[in-house]
Amino acid sequence: MDFLRPRTWAEALALKAERPEATPIQGGTDVMVEINLDKGRPAALLDLTPIPELREWSREGVEIRVGAGVTYSRLIAELGADLPGLAQASRTVGSPQIRNRGTVAGNLGAASPAGDSHPPLLACGAVVEAESVRGARLIPIRQFYTGVKRNALAPDELIHAVRVPAATGPQYFSKVGTRNAMVIAVCSFATALEPAERRVGTGIGSAAPTPRRAPDAEDFASGALDWDGRGPLDPAVARRFGELVAAAAAPIDDVRGRAAYRTHALAVMARRALGWAWDDLRGSA
Amino acid sequence: MRVNVTVNGRPMTADDVWEGESLLYVLRERLGLPGAKNACEQGECGSCTVYLDRTPVCACLVAAGQAEGREVVTVEGLAAGGGPDGEADGGLHEVQRAFVDAGAVQCGFCTPGLVVQAHALLAGADGVPPDADIREALAGNLCRCTGYEKILDAVRLAAARRHPTP
Questions:
Q1: Domain housing A75
Q2: ipTM for the predicted complex
Q3: Count of helices and strands (H, E) across chain B
Q4: How buried is A112 (Cβ within 10 angstroms: 0-12 exposed, 13-18 middle, 19+ buried)?
Q5: Chain A to chain B, count of Cβ pairs less than 8 Å apart?
């Protein structure tokens, strides 16, 4: 195995072009587990932690550009107001020690259907900034997940940053697990309200081969919510929203839970999350 | 490969390090520092918690090469005054003293990780942290003996001794 240590982003891209089989490593919370437990042995590790610019985030118009090396701990501490959905999801990742190392970009690279970052990124329409020596491109999050633990990155591409729209309304993330820490989601759900556009975003985790949206639920709620009067949420609307979210999932039975349980839990989480978000919106008026 | 890392304030060098090796393996097997414990090797148990550049991390999830040129403090470095805040008390750091006094140590395997993580919590806390904060801070450290109550007592005790009420 080789250990590649680029000092700059340009060097990292050059090394990835030369060695497309190299596995990028940031916090190591996925990559090192594979190696320690002998589940896989990469031909080379491409350590991205020495590159200072990856640890930065910046405000670019209506978006927050989160560098690939920004840890969950920093995201929680520094971006909770701008990216509440992603920050809530980040708080449920692993433990403090894991959040001190893990990154959203690492979650995207691994592309596990159970990754906690994915539902909030889907709900608010984030964009992945991928780059190789051939150039940079922006991949809408909806096109990013291509299969179980597979993503749209080309073999010579690295994730430079994630561009996440700053919240324009309430956002919520919900996750089912056996305890409050160190839990891989049995299933998870995120929603984001965009009152100016009268849109509701959704993201479903750990209940299909890839993270996915619930487009029918989005369209239904966007049309059914009382955006002008902002009256109390009609329980029938909340219930229907939950049903449509559950209908968008395609879960399996596995060690963490049964498909039927996941479907049921998703409907409950979606109904509640919409209620919390709507109450916040009414309270903020 | 060779890895140069400052451990507990001393520059150290490990040779013949395999590229897929963890920082934990380097500390325990190559640098003679067995304080951080090796258990789950997947970040679940917290037994290998050390400071990496003043941030508590699971040493089993840090690739050895990622520690190149960086500063590590292990549980051995707390008592020797080599900890981030340089405190020592009768051979034990005040967090270690509180674990002993509160009866928070049984088999002791989880203790080094808990001590480092509790040390980090108290370094950033004013007064005695609320129970919810202690539980959250220690959520990634498993103990199979104590049932955690004595560990929570130890953290409260260490915090109270640090911030005596007038």
A1: 2-44+53-165
A2: 0.94
A3: 6, 5
A4: buried
A5: 89
Write down the pLDDT at residue B90: 59
- Whole-model pTM above 0.90? yes
A25 touching B, CB under 8 A? yes
Task: Give me the number of domains chain A comprises.
Answer: 2
pLDDT digits (tens, 9 = 90+) for A37-80: 999 999 999 999 999 999 999 999 999 999 999 999 999 999 99
Pick the CATH number of B3-77 from 3.10.20.30, 3.30.2270.10, 3.40.1260.10, 3.40.190.10: 3.10.20.30
**Contact between B19 and A41 using a beta-carbon 8 Å cutoff:** no
For an interface test with B, the pick among A2, A19, A36 (most B C-beta atoms closer than 10 Å) comes out as: A36
- Reported as a pLDDT band with limits 50, 70 and 90, residue B79 is confident
Tokens of B62: 């840090």
A135 shares a domain with A40? yes
Binned at pLDDT 50, 70 and 90, residue B82 comes out as: very low
For A136, list phi and psi in degrees, rounded to 5. Answer: -105, 150
The alpha carbon of residue B166 is apart from the nearest alpha carbon of chain A, in Å, by: 32
Strand partners, A153: none
